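Comment thread on ticket #2218

A.B. wrote:
> Attaching the input chain for the structure job we discussed in standup.
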Amino acid sequence: MYGLTLLVNRLLGAALEAYARREHLYAPPGDDEELHSDQRKLLPVVIGYVIAILIGLAAPVAAVALYFGIAVYLIVPFREVARLAFRRS
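C.D. wrote:
> Ran it. Output below, let me know if you need it in another format.
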């Protein structure tokens, strides 16, 4: 149930974001990089949730680890971290 809730939440959030983008409800029109980053993350996250849900039927602890990994993937801006790491090198 937890995985299904996360999956539905992500899909509804993506639908709401698509509606807001289509209706030009975002204030800064020049910040398209962040919007495209969110769009690129949608498919891997949805696939990850489906896989975690299926794994959760047999191994719930492994599914929780996958949910945590997906949350980290969504929260941490890996491109920005890599950009800062290479800038310091």
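A.B. wrote:
> Thanks. Noting for the ticket: The two ends are 45 Å apart (CA to CA).
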